[in-house]
Every structure is written in structure tokens, then in C-alpha cells.
UniProtKB/TrEMBL annotation:
Gene3D superfamilies: NAD(P)-binding Rossmann-like Domain. The keyword Oxidoreductase applies. Belongs to the short-chain dehydrogenases/reductases (SDR) family. InterPro entries: NAD(P)-bd_dom_sf, Sc_DH/Rdtase_CS, SDR_fam. Keywords: Oxidoreductase. PROSITE patterns: ADH_SHORT (PS00061). SUPFAM superfamilies: NAD(P)-binding Rossmann-fold domains. This is SDR family oxidoreductase. One of its GO terms (molecular function) is oxidoreductase activity, acting on the CH-OH group of donors, NAD or NADP as acceptor.
């Protein structure tokens, strides 16, 4: 009991899409709780700089730039971790993209790109991580869902379908891997201030809608996901499996 319940000392965490945005805040939070973190992004320079900033702040961090939609890239990254003796104890499947278009105008390739980036990547990286966690008898997988894991919204169909899938992938992971000592859970962020949402934040009508629609009356800050992430990464959640925790200022609970 006590602080050790939430301690990540000695653990290694891979956070996909952590060169900026929510992933970066989560990586920093896990590092502050004692984990050694591996920063990921597509852009190698931004990824390297994000890891360097964490090291400068006194944390343990490394960089692994790869595209989460590239199976070859994922396999190469895990091969490199294996060769260097790096064991991923905590995987946060966070990398994601948004693409807004009415469904009647949506090209199939854009549908596939969003599903691949937001959902299939979590399966492939989850599979590679779990293969290595299962023989060790422990591991934490945290998938990043969304309010669209539950609720649809016009113009974001593939995102909604992918995030609904992330919720069910989390349950599928729990169903297969809980008996091996792994915990798979998800976090569903509400409307948070990141690059992905900059156009919405800058739109006065949308900004007013978010503030009115959210019981907390404001957008969320990336660092407000840290509590849930540390909980789901730590021994405190060892009997929690298949859950999605909404960190949304209450939005999903009200009409
Ligand atoms: P940002 O656009 O701010 O950051 C996205 C991050 O993902 C970057 O680090 C980017 O890397 C990385 N990334 C994007 N595509 C890939 C890829 N193919 N391979 C590897 N890395 C990739 O997004 P957010 O921080 O806002 O979102 C993070 C997650 O949270 C997403 O899954 C999103 O759906 C989810 N979410 C966000 C909400 C919000 O309000 N912001 C609400 C609910 C869910 P690079 O820097 O190299 O481009």
C-alpha cells in the first residue's frame, strides 16, 4: 500500500504518438511516476527532441520513431527492443489522426487510413507487446479511445468506428490476456487542447458548444490524463481489466 501502489519505478513504457499532444503528456506523467519511457512519432526529429526534453528534465527516456501503420516499421522496432534487451512493461496505444468529411464524400482510402492509424495499429502493436509480456506473466496495455467510443458525430465516421473498435479491442485483449497476468484498459478523453483540435478551438461557435456541453465548462488539458494513465499502468489496477475510463469533465454522462 501507499505510494508503491502507483509507482512505475523499474518499468519501461512505450507510448505511441508521444512526440506531442496527449501522448507526450502521458509519457511525461509515466516518467514522473518512475517509468523509463520510449517516445514514438512519425517525424524522427520531433520524436528525438521530445525524448531529449524529457531526459533534460531528469527523466529516463528514449526515442523510437516509426509509423504505426507500417507493420514492417513495428516489427523492426520490436526487433530493436529485443536486441537491446528492452522489455516493454507498459504499452500506451495513443497514436491517432482525425479526418473530417461527410460520409457521402469520403474516399475509401481515407476511411482505411483512419481505421489503420487509430485501430489496426493498436492491434498490431498490442499483439507484439503481448507476445513478449505473456511469458513474463505481467504487462499493462492502455488504449486511447474517445467520446466517439460511445457516441457518433457527423463528419467523423471512420474515427467514430475506429474508436468504437478501440473500446471492443480493449475487451478482446482482456478476454484473451487477463489469465496471463496482463491488464488491458482504455482511457476516453473528452475535448482536450491539442494540435488535433486547434481548428475547433479557434472556431468561436465550436468553442462555445464544448464549454456549454461539458459539465466542467471548459476544454481538458493534456496533463489531466496523467492520473488515469498512471493508475492503469501501475499495480493499483492489477484487477481492473477491459474498462474504459472517461476523462471528459463529465460530458459523456449528460445530454
Ligand atoms: P496530436 O495530433 O496532437 O498528436 C498526434 C501524435 O500522434 C503525434 O505525436 C504524431 O506524431 C503521432 N502520430 C500520428 N500518426 C502517427 C503514425 N502513423 N505513426 C506514429 N505516430 C503517429 O493528437 P492528440 O494528442 O490530440 O491525440 C492523441 C490521441 O488521443 C489520438 O488517438 C486521438 O484520437 C485521441 N483523442 C484526442 C482527443 C483530443 O481532444 N485531442 C480526444 C479524444 C481522443 P508526429 O509528431 O510525428 O506527427
Amino acid at each position: 500500500m501507499g505510494p508503491a501502489l502507483f509507482s512505475l519505478t523499474g518499468r519501461t513504457a512505450l507510448v505511441t504518438g508521444s512526440s506531442r499532444g496527449l501522448g507526450r503528456a502521458i509519457a511525461e506523467g509515466l516518467a514522473a511516476a518512475g517509468a523509463s519511457v520510449i517516445i514514438n512519432g512519425v517525424d524522427p526529429e520531433r520524436t528525438r527532441q521530445a525524448a531529449a526534453a524529457l531526459v533534460k528534465a531528469g527523466y529516463q527516456a528514449d526515442a523510437a520513431a516509426f509509423d504505426v501503420t507500417s507493420e514492417n516499421g513495428i516489427m523492426a522496432a520490436f526487433k530493436d527492443f529485443d536486441a537491446r534487451g528492452i522489455e516493454i512493461d507498459i504499452l500506451v496505444n495513443n497514436a491517432g489522426i482525425q479526418f473530417r468529411k461527410p460520409m457521402v464524400d469520403l474516399a475509401t482510402e481515407d476511411w482505411r487510413r483512419v481505421i489503420d492509424t487509430n485501430l489496426t495499429s493498436a492491434f498490431v502493436i498490442g499483439r507484439e507487446a503481448a507476445k513478449r509480456m505473456i511469458p513474463r506473466g505481467c504487462g499493462k496495455i492502455i488504449n486511447i479511445g474517445s467520446l466517439t467510443s460511445e457516441l457518433a458525430r457527423a463528419t467523423v465516421a471512420p474515427y467514430t468506428v475506429a474508436k468504437g473498435g478501440v473500446k471492443m479491442l480493449t475487451r478482446a485483449m482482456a478476454a484473451e490476456w487477463a489469465a496471463h497476468g496482463l491488464q488491458a484498459n482504455a482511457i476516453g478523453p473528452g475535448y482536450m487542447i491539442t494540435d488535433m483540435n486547434q481548428a475547433l478551438i479557434d472556431n468561436p461557435e465550436f468553442d462555445a458548444w464544448v464549454k456549454k456541453r461539458t459539465p466542467a465548462g471548459r476544454w481538458g488539458k493534456p496533463e489531466e490524463l496523467i492520473g488515469a494513465a498512471v493508475f492503469l499502468a501501475s499495480p493499483a489496477s492489477d484487477y481492473v481489466n477491459g474498462q474504459i475510463i472517461y476523462v471528459d469533465g463529465g460530458m459523456i454522462s449528460v445530454l
